TrEMBL record:
This is Outer membrane protein beta-barrel domain-containing protein. Residues 1-25 form the signal peptide. InterPro entries: Beta-barrel_OMP (IPR027385), OMP/PagP_B-barrel (IPR011250). Keywords: Signal. It comes from Eiseniibacteriota bacterium. SUPFAM superfamilies: OMPA-like (SSF56925).
Length: 204
């Protein structure tokens, strides 16, 4: 049911953003491909944060004005894992547990550009949308138990960075983004995480 609702919301978002807006017909927009690193500082299982991992994404941006753009972002973010050993306080049996989590995200966003159109720019952006958080747990305590589940949550993000021209139709964007995601599970109180990314924007 959770995945069905997530898929329906994704399709609805794509349909809404796909409708033509008051943008000049000759502006076909920009495709942006990004690669980065995602890291949470929330303690999992009351111990420490997950180790962090790679983040990949793609976005489509269109200009609403010379300095304001709207777009749709989709990304996969690996939050890493946490592997630790412990002793059961009741049976004194040594045990081991491994936790890992990742995020599949889609959200509309707005971006403001400050600077000359053809030169280096300062960027700031905000977005809000759907975060599909999936996690796994592997427990060894005289026996082996594997558990996995997922959660769909609404979250928002904000960030800033710089944009450097690479030619007439390409730009290199370096951004830091912080994601605020509600919800919790048996191991974590929230899904908040930060992301650093480098993106290549290609004008269409």
């Amino acid at each position: 049911m959770k995945r069905t609702r997530f898929a329906f919301a994704l399709i609805l978002t794509l349909c809404v953003l796909g409708c033509p807006g008051p943008v000049a017909a000759q502006d076909a927009g920009t495709i942006e491909i990004n690669l980065g690193y995602a890291k949470t500082w929330t303690d999992w299982a009351g111990r420490e944060p997950l180790g962090g991992g790679p983040a990949v994404g793609i976005a489509y941006w269109r200009a609403a004005s010379p300095d304001l753009s709207w777009g749709l972002e989709g990304a996969f973010q690996d939050l890493g894992d946490l592997d630790y050993s412990f002793v059961d306080p009741y049976t004194l049996t040594p045990g081991r547990e491994k936790l890992e989590a990742n995020v599949l995200r889609v959200n509309p966003a707005f971006r403001v550009r400050i600077g000359r159109p053809n030169g280096p720019n300062f960027l700031a952006q905000v977005g809000a949308g759907l975060y599909h958080v999936a996690w796994k747990a592997h427990l060894e305590l005289g026996f082996i138990t594997d558990f996995d589940d997922s959660d769909n949550e609404f979250g928002f993000n904000a960030g800033a960075g710089v944009s450097l021209p690479l030619g007439e139709t390409k730009r290199l964007n370096v951004l830091g983004i912080y994601h605020v995601v509600g919800g919790d599970n048996a191991f974590a109180e929230d899904y908040n995480h930060a992301e650093g990314r480098v993106a290549l924007g290609i004008g269409l």
